[in-house]
Amino acid sequence: MFTKVKPRSVSDDIVDQMVSAIFSGDLS
After folding, report:
1. pLDDT by residue (tens digit) across 1-28?
2. What one-character DSSP code corresponds to residue 11?
3. Cα–Cα dist 28/6, whole Å
4. Dist. CA 2–CA 13, nearest whole Å
């Protein structure tokens, strides 16, 4: 997906988890 050049923040990690859950739910 996107290349993260700056250090990951907690909010970014939460957003990534939410997006992953939504995509996996839609694709499964």
Report:
1. 566 666 668 888 888 899 999 888 876 5
2. H
3. 31
4. 13
